[in-house]
Write the structure tokens for this entry.
Amino acid sequence: MTDPSCLFCRIAAGQIPATLVHEDAEVVAFKDIAPQAPVHLVLVPRVHLAGLNDLTADLAPLVGKLALVAQGLAKAHGCAATGWRLISNCGPDAGQTVHHLHFHLLGGAPMAGRMV
Ligand code: 5GP
Ligand code: ZN
């Protein structure tokens, strides 16, 4: 369920320090170490999945939970009304660098250009 060599498993387990902004039985969220926006949070499930390619039907509710936690964090960090993005990079073309499923919550300023 967890991978001892995985950075985000280790952050979720408290073995590597991070600035946590949310923690519950299933989900941990922390500030990104290299923020790309005034609000840049990373949300991860405690269970190890490499990314959305590995999501299975039994774990699908976890994605809803992550979205709900993101909504709460957007409110708590003052960007629910002004706008925010939730992004999961999956695989090399998307630029995924950490191979544990995660969502970036970005907000706090207008985002330059459109991604889609
Ligand atoms: P990806 O590129 O896989 O979509 O996102 C990985 C994110 O994790 C990057 O935005 C990167 O800055 C962040 N990150 C990498 N290592 C660490 C770390 O040790 N601590 C924290 N808080 N964030 C990290
Ligand atoms: Zn992991």
